[in-house]
Design a protein that fits this description.
The chain has about 130 residues and is an all-alpha fold. The protein is about 85% helix and about 0% strand. The chain contains two helices and no strands. It is flat, with a radius of gyration of 38 Å. Keywords: Coiled coil.
């Protein structure tokens, strides 16, 4: 009889474990459903913002503004264009300076390599003389 009670107890314990596992799975499914609902609500707005950001970043800057052009015109807009042009000039000057430094370093590197070769050659010649 005790063996039968023991078997029933194990079966009951197994059923209890399965019920707990089922409850946990149901809770996980519920959480996933909530997350999916949140993504469905927020994803379109996020995609729209991202697309707008990418498009505005790729939009070319129109430097040919005049008072005859349609659309809003203001001194602030023209000042912004002037600032962009000045930044572009400064950027171009920096690039030219970097190119000059690279060219200078390149020509200096040739002489450094030649001096290294000469130094290595002299070292090995001195080693041969000492041996």
């Amino acid at each position: 009889m005790t063996e039968q009670h023991q078997h029933e107890g194990e079966a009951l314990h197994q059923v209890t474990d399965e019920i707990e596992e089922l409850d946990k799975l149901e809770e996980d499914v519920s959480l996933m459903a909530q997350k999916i609902a949140e993504f469905r609500e927020t994803l379109p707005a996020q995609l729209q913002n991202t697309l707008a950001s990418v498009l505005s970043a790729q939009r070319p800057v129109n430097f040919n503004l005049s008072d005859n052009d349609p659309g809003p015109s203001s001194n602030a807009n023209q000042e912004g264009v002037v600032a962009l042009v000045e930044d572009d000039v400064a950027h171009t000057e920096k690039i030219e300076t970097i190119k000059q430094k690279i060219s200078s370093n390149d020509s200096a590197m040739l002489s450094v390599v030649k001096r290294m070769k000469d130094s290595i050659s002299d070292y090995f010649q001195n080693q041969l003389l000492l041996d």
